[in-house]
């Protein structure tokens, strides 16, 4: 598995991440979703450079032009609900992509422990296609592992890109341990070192789903 960071060297990407983290700006959920979507577009641009391209002739009003175009088939998959704005950003660039959605969540016990459960999945056939899985926060890595394995029921992708805005080191280590031998690139905009007692990324930004769509019961 390969890991790539889009925040190095520093660029406008760092401002998007900074605003998502900022407790004062987080009160604007529209701004939060917009920044997540913009980062999705940046990830899409970066991933587009890894695709296969061929020259194709395009007719213009005045003649013909040979353009380098990709014919890779892409499936965008997001983990609900926090992944939706990130998914939309990817879809803005990969507008011909097919789409998959996975509902993965933490089921807490009375003791405060939790396990990850997948309640719903909708996906096209991914056999031989480029699979891009979007989840803005990679904390423990457990939900990403389960999502990746669940999607294998719909075929074997030619290659998989995992897109997360902020990851904890523990989550990256877990994914490397569980999926390190798979044909995967992990794309990140920031890496934080710690998880707290509730397995939230520190400093992180809080609950991305709540910040994007409101607090849930």
Structure characterization notes:
By secondary structure, the protein is of the alpha/beta class. It has one domain (2-52, 71-213): Rossmann fold (3-Layer(aba) Sandwich). Helix content is 31%, strand content 35%. It has helices at residues 12-21, 29-48, 84-93, 142-151, 169-179, 208-213; strands spanning 2-5, 53-60, 63-70, 74-80, 98-108, 114-122, 130-134, 137-138, 159-168, 184-192, 194-195, 201-202. Strands 1, 4, 5, 6, 7, 8, 9 and 10 form an 8-stranded mixed sheet that branches. A two-stranded antiparallel ribbon has the order 2-3. Strand 11 and strand 12 form a beta hairpin. The longest helix has 20 residues, at 29-48. It starts with a strand and ends with a helix. The mean pLDDT is 94.
Outline the secondary-structure elements.
Layout: E1 2-5, H1 12-21, H2 29-48, E2 53-60, E3 63-70, E4 74-80, H3 84-93, E5 98-108, E6 114-122, E7 130-134, E8 137-138, H4 142-151, E9 159-168, H5 169-179, E10 184-192, E11 194-195, E12 201-202, H6 208-213
Parallel strand pairs: 1-10, 4-5, 4-7, 7-9, 8-9, 9-10
Antiparallel strand pairs: 2-3, 5-6, 11-12
Helix pairs in contact: 1-2, 2-3
């Amino acid at each position: 598995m390969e890991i790539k960071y889009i925040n190095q060297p520093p660029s406008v990407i760092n401002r998007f991440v900074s605003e998502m983290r900022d407790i004062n700006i987080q009160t604007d959920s529209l701004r939060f979703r917009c920044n997540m979507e913009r980062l999705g577009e940046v990830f899409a641009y970066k991933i587009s450079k890894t695709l296969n391209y061929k020259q194709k002739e395009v007719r213009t009003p005045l003649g013909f032009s040979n353009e380098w175009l990709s014919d890779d088939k892409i499936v965008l998959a997001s983990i609900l609900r926090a992944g939706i704005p990130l998914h939309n950003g990817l879809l803005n660039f990969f507008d011909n992509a097919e789409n998959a959605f996975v509902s993965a969540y933490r089921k807490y016990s009375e003791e405060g422990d939790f396990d990850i459960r997948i309640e719903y999945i909708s996906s096209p056939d991914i056999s031989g296609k480029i699979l891009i899985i979007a989840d803005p926060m990679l904390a423990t890595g457990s939900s990403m592992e389960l999502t990746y394995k669940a999607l294998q029921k719909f075929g074997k992708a030619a290659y998989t890109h995992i897109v997360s805005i902020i990851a904890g080191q523990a989550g990256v280590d877990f994914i490397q341990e569980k999926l390190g031998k798979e044909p995967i690139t992990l794309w990140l905009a920031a890496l934080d070192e710690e998880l707290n007692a509730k397995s939230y990324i520190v400093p992180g930004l809080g609950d991305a789903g709540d910040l994007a769509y409101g607090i849930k019961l």
